[in-house]
Amino acid sequence: MRLDKFLAEVGIGSRKEVKVLIKKGQIKVNEEVIKSDKFQVKEFDDQITYLDEPLVYQKDFYYVLNKPAGVISATQDNYEQTVMDLLSDEDYREDLFPVGRLDKDTEGLLILTNDGKLAHRLLSPKKHVEKEYFAKVKGVMTEEDIDSFARGLVIDKGEQTLPAQLFIDSIDHEEETSAIRLILHEGKFHQVKRMVQAVGKEVTYLKRLRMGGFLLPESLDNGEYRELTETELLQLQEQNK
């Protein structure tokens, strides 16, 4: 791997910025100052330092975020706060991105990574990776709704959804509200809201709980994030092969 590419990938700076550091003699490879950005390094074997601080190569990064409402699922935006703005300067990388989108007012499980292959497997319609949501609904959900969801619904604009599993957790008949969980096998735009709307009700609160076999960690408060553990990463990877 070229030295400038290595430095950029470990987060020291952009390819343009690290070239300057190299020319200034601030980079050493195996204790030797290297001033060529094209110098070839073995990323896992060579000892590479910046201002005598060792650099450890890591190709892929994985974070789990308990997304709060009011933040958009994008890498950058000129007007709105994004999920990337929630990362500390230490964890922020330009190549990170959210896996899929949660609406601005939707909370819950969101994976941030730079692993495009994993993201594709999680989002590919062919993989049918389950996504589980909790929702509060204005209106009383019924057994007929459960059957309709199980068959697949025609939502607005004539779109046909795949069969989905609807569970009614509770009903408040006095307030005419419901609490539900919904398991989807696809990810159409605003799908949960549109499916609930198709049976004459309205989602007032929405939170994603699970992707595949990976549950939102209970210890993660709203707006908090952390790196995935090796076990959690395997939970995401194994069921998508």
UniProtKB/TrEMBL annotation:
Alphabetized PANTHER family for the sequence: PSEUDOURIDINE SYNTHASE, PSEUDOURIDINE SYNTHASE FAMILY PROTEIN-RELATED
Organism: Enterococcus durans
GO molecular-function terms, A-Z: RNA binding; rRNA pseudouridine synthase activity
GO biological-process terms attached to the record: enzyme-directed rRNA pseudouridine synthesis
Record-annotated RNA-binding S4 domain positions: 1-59
Full protein name: Pseudouridine synthase
EC number: 5.4.99.-
Entry's Gene Ontology cellular component terms: cytosol
Record-linked Pfam families: PseudoU_synth_2, S4
Superkingdom, natural source: Bacteria
InterPro entries in UniProt: PsdUridine_s_RsuA/RluB/E/F_cat, PsdUridine_synth_cat_dom_sf, PsdUridine_synth_RsuA/RluA, PsdUridine_synth_RsuA/RluB/E/F, PsdUridine_synth_RsuA/RluB_CS, RsuA_PseudoU_synthase, S4_RNA-bd, S4_RNA-bd_sf
